[in-house]
Write a structure and sequence with these properties.
The protein has 224 residues and is mainly beta. It has one domain: Immunoglobulin-like (Sandwich), CATH 2.60.40. Helices cover 4% and strands 40% of the residues. The chain has 1 helix and 15 strands, in the order H-E-E-E-E-E-E-E-E-E-E-E-E-E-E-E. The strands form 5 sheets. Strands 9-8-12-5-3-14 form a 6-stranded mixed sheet, with no helix packed on it. The chain has a 3-stranded antiparallel sheet with strand order 10-7-13, with no helix packed on it. Strand 1 and strand 2 form a beta hairpin. The N and C termini lie far apart (113 Å).
Length: 224
């Protein structure tokens, strides 16, 4: 009987409301309002002295032109890989909307068209190099192109801008071959010329930083 009396005394100190239990003074019971839930505000912890917060992730597309051919290519050669590059997406998924390339002839003026084309250089058949493509390095499937070379507004020849899209997941990279055809006959005389390639620009959308790396040894290929 003593235990039962104690249990009743304890039970009388609680008021059951809905699914909640509210403790009240047994002499002056004050039931909780029906259906209410206490909300405890969440506050951010104070910064720990000496520890800096991690920097925000910056969306970046990195292009590394790491390989260039040093071969001598015969006129009329098709589907020849003259270079290779790797494209890497950092921080978030990215759409690479365009990649720009420039072909140069070592020892010649940047405005000199004669190593690349003849006449007005306005038609595809005026150029030594044609049908430029960017292909998957492993599967050989075409990612961008084919396109032709052309002059820029500043009269610099042998520029190519691929305007298709390559989609990359954050942290994912794509190895790409730079492939072209060599004309036969050759409109421009390539005797003694050595050609190599530069990346001139990459567009991965607004707010995306671009990091371009060129091989320390640009190589260079020739044409018979």
């Amino acid at each position: 009987m003593t235990h039962f009396t104690s249990f009743v005394a304890v039970l009388s100190s609680f008021v059951f409301v809905g699914c909640g239990i509210t403790t009240v003074d047994s002499d002056t019971p004050t039931p909780a309002p029906s259906g209410t839930v206490a909300v405890v505000p969440i506050t951010e912890p104070a910064p720990v002295p000496g520890i800096k917060p991690a920097p925000a992730c910056e969306p970046t597309v990195s292009v590394n032109l790491w390989g260039q051919s040093t071969a001598t290519i015969s006129a009329g050669t098709s589907d020849y890989a003259v270079g290779a590059l790797t494209v890497l997406a950092s921080c978030k998924d990215l759409e690479v909307k365009s990649i720009g390339l420039m072909f140069v002839s070592l020892g010649d003026s940047p405005e000199d068209k004669t190593p690349f084309c003849s006449g007005s250089c306005a038609a595809p058949e005026d150029w030594n190099f044609r049908n430029l493509r960017l292909r998957d390095y492993w599967s050989a499937s075409t990612l961008m192109g084919p396109i032709g070379l052309k002059e820029t507004a500043s009269n610099q020849p042998a520029h190519a801008r691929f305007a298709d899209s390559i989609f990359l997941k954050a942290g994912e990279s794509q190895m790409i071959s730079i492939v072209l055809d060599v004309a036969n006959p050759l409109p421009a005389n390539p005797a003694g010329k050595k050609y190599h390639i530069f990346v001139t620009g990459v567009d991965a959308g607004p707010g995306t930083a671009v990091n371009v790396i060129h091989s320390s040894d640009p190589g260079g290929f020739s044409i018979l």
